[in-house]
Amino acid sequence: MIIDTAVTPEDLLPNIHSFWGLSAQKIDLIRKDYDFAAGAPVYTVDGRYTSRSWTEWTLGFAFGSSLLQYDAAGDESFLHPAVKSIDEKMKDYLTHTGVHDHGFNVVSTFGNLLRLLTEERQGIDPAARPYYETALRCSGATQASRWTALPDGGGYIYSFNGPHSLFADTIRSLRSLAVAHKLGHTLLGENDTHISLYHRIVHHVYATSKYNVYFGEGRDGYDIWGRTAHESIFNLNDGNYRCPSSQQGFSPFTTWTRGLAWIISGAAEQLEYAEIVPSSDYPEGIKPDDYRAMLERTARAVCDFYIDYTTADGIPFWDTGAPELHKLGDYRQTVSDPHNPHEPVDSSAAAIAAQGLMRLGRYLQRWGDVTSGSRYFQAGLTALRTLMNEPYLSTESGHQGLLLHAVYHRPNGWDHIPEGRSVPCGESCMWGDYHIREAVLYTQRLAEGGRELRFDTVGGNQS
Question: Which structural domains are found in the chain, ordered by start?
């Protein structure tokens, strides 16, 4: 990746203002034409959103996008329908015991509503605060209950594959536990055992760092600084780690870039949250400074890997070990081409990572490392600028997607390949559309000197 060290958030303001106009058109298209009775919108085929029965993990992104649109542009016509849909369609997900996706579905909806209420934005009923807070408490506790304990006293929130499975994705979903913890919630177990949600955050972060992230220390024959495994597998009979795996990447020993991006954003957000958590909330034997140092090292590693193995303009291919990449030469020194005939890029990974890169950059700058902080921040801004222009921004009036050239599940062949093409391209996904909106809103607030966009600014006192 070739980082533009000169571009600023202010430079992107003209693009940002036109972006929200286009975003509004896409939300209106979905609202008018999509049948939610068919399931949550997941990805587009020929420009129209379709569902995919697996889990409805994208429903919160659909309604959350409308909340971000309202947040950015102040148009209440996007707020009130979203509030109604969330109230009607999202309640069951608050106590969904079968997924690791609460930070996606619930924080994107109820979390955004509570944040907007805390910011005293117009149009949101203050009387709804107890409802939103209770929803987020339930969600965080339910997510935390999916727990596999490890012999070292730690553990992890297990994926929908089962208790043996630790996903890279889940570190971003820890925002559900963090919001509930900030609201003062505690998970109750057998015999009324009080279980700290922050303890579970800390232990899960340690497990993700130890097992899903590589640090160039000879762990296996493919150990490179910042490489990630999508999944880590454990033997539940004795709790021992067994091997890496991958559900959506090319192999266990290559890096699926959306999994990498989830860790980039999740680690950066947890660093921000750790800034406000008192030392008394940490598990016994874990010092806050040691935890933050571990988390910062993890965040630096995955961000460095992203920068090193991404195209010049900041857009990654779907997997850094994709089998046909060799036909593209040194793709890291050239601008991305989503229409190439060999391997698809994944713009959704770039949208997720861009925000994490910028967050890590600002965190490091606050803690005195201006040089590294500037590098990561500018890398995120470079990638975001690419996404906010064609060929990635969807300007075709009939296309329901906002961010083009996303990939969902390449190994399963779920992504649409247009006629005359050999790899998926030209389509959108709901998480990509949501996360580019979130990244643009984050950048807009920086450019305009507004309140920084952070999930942990919801109401409530730190426990």
Answer: 10-457 (1.50.10.10)
